[in-house]
Amino acid sequence: VQEPEEKKIALELLETEQAYVNRLHLLDQIFYTELMKEAKNGKAVPEEVVKMIFSNISSIYQFHANFFLPELQKRMEDWSYNPRIGDVIQKLAPFLKMYGEYVKNFDKAVELITVWSEKSPPFQDLIADIQKRKVCANLTLQHHMLEPVQRIPRYELLLKDYVRKLPPESPDRDDAEKALEMIFMVAKHSNAAIAEMERLQNLWVVYQRLGLEDDIVDPSNELIKEGPIQKISTRNNSTSEKYLFLFNNMLLYCVPKVIQVGAEFQVHLRIDVDSMKVR
């Protein structure tokens, strides 16, 4: 007898979840635990750095290993008389907000691994030693750390597929559709967290180039466009180079500094966008 399509997808979800929990175990119980032990005992690396690299991986691991995976296993064992996974995924969805923190921290974590591997040979040796073990399957720590970042999009794809293959009369239809909606919101939440972080980082760089004038620094501002312009003086027909920064709320008219110590530009004029007309 051919298994129904939706059951195949549910089984794939279970299999990938099992593999995922093994990966989280490797990150939390092996890499994190052993590096932390090394940090506590030796001078290889500060404890703070290890904590910053692994962010909230422990919470993520505990959640999947102790809650989501067992619930999913139970569902698949009972499939013949209760074919549903939608309800379990609805319970999972709110907890996926935990990923926002991990995903936001990911680039910084990878950078810390690189920096401390150069700075501290014992740190590098311990990571290399763990990477040689069979459980690592010849992959680097960074590669394993990417897994949680990719997990939510994977849930979204599998669940979309599952909902598509469900027969109209399936007892799981309502729950599965609601679960998909919830996962979709969480995925958006995690993408929004990354976008917001990038926006703030870019904003901060711009503020540094402007010499951080107090009344300009506002985290809610958005940089829309920047670039050089030629100012033509009608008096003596000469041109001089100026630079514009357009934010959502103001236009900064700047002069490039000749001696670039600290700031790159000096703000000469600040025009509020509110009363501005474009000709």
TrEMBL record:
Subcellular location: Cytoplasm, Cytoskeleton
SMART domains on file: RhoGEF (SM00325)
Keywords for the protein's UniProt record, in alphabetical order: Cytoplasm, Cytoskeleton, Metal-binding, Phosphoprotein, Repeat, Zinc, Zinc-finger
Gene3D superfamilies hit by this protein: Dbl homology (DH) domain, Pleckstrin-homology domain (PH domain)/Phosphotyrosine-binding domain (PTB)
Cross-referenced Pfam families: RhoGEF
Domain DH: 5-193
InterPro entries assigned: DBL_dom_sf (IPR035899), DH_dom (IPR000219), FYVE_RhoGEF_PH (IPR051092), PH-like_dom_sf (IPR011993)
Main location: cytoplasm
Name the UniProt record assigns to this protein: FGD2 protein
Gene of this entry: Fgd2_0
